[in-house]
């Protein structure tokens, strides 16, 4: 027994001998769709128009989620700003932003015993 496969255009539901599976790429991803010759022509024209805009556009990257610190609490009752202020007033080298070295924290805790976190 023979079977006949009838392809149906995924856009307008038409049937015909010109309907076939069409592959196309968009932004590095490949898709497939059943289209008639007319709808395939529309797709190609649309993709050419889209590519014109994409070529002149700048990609916007999604914002990264902030890193969550996995390290233990370094101080109790004081902020990093307090540590930096104390270090600068005591001629200890410390960056204005970013990670504060363990040595600076240790010196701060030595000068402020109440800052030592609970173990």
From TrEMBL:
Q: Where does the Lsr2 dimerization domain start and stop, copy by copy?
A: 1-60
Which superkingdom, per the lineage?
A: Bacteria
Domain Lsr2 DNA-binding: where? 78-111
InterPro entries given for it?
A: E3-bd_dom_sf, Lsr2-like_dimerization, Lsr2_dim_dom, Lsr2_DNA-bd
Q: Which UniProt keywords apply?
A: DNA-binding
* A matching Pfam family: Lsr2_DNA-bd
Q: Which GO terms describe its molecular function?
A: acyltransferase activity; DNA binding
User: Do the record's keywords include Transit peptide?
Assistant: no
Protein name as it appears in the record: Lsr2 family protein
């Amino acid at each position: 027994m023979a079977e006949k496969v009838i392809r149906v255009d995924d856009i307008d539901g038409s049937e015909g001998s010109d309907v076939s599976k069409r592959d196309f790429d968009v932004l590095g991803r490949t898709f497939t769709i059943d289209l008639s010759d007319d709808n395939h022509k529309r797709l190609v024209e649309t993709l050419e128009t889209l590519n014109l805009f994409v070529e002149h556009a700048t990609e916007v990257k999604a914002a990264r989620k902030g890193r969550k610190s996995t390290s233990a609490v370094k101080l109790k009752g004081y902020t990093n700003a307090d540590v930096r202020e104390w270090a600068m007033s005591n001629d200890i080298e410390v960056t204005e932003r970013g990670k504060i070295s363990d040595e600076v924290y240790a010196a701060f805790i030595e000068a402020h015993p109440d800052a030592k976190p609970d173990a």
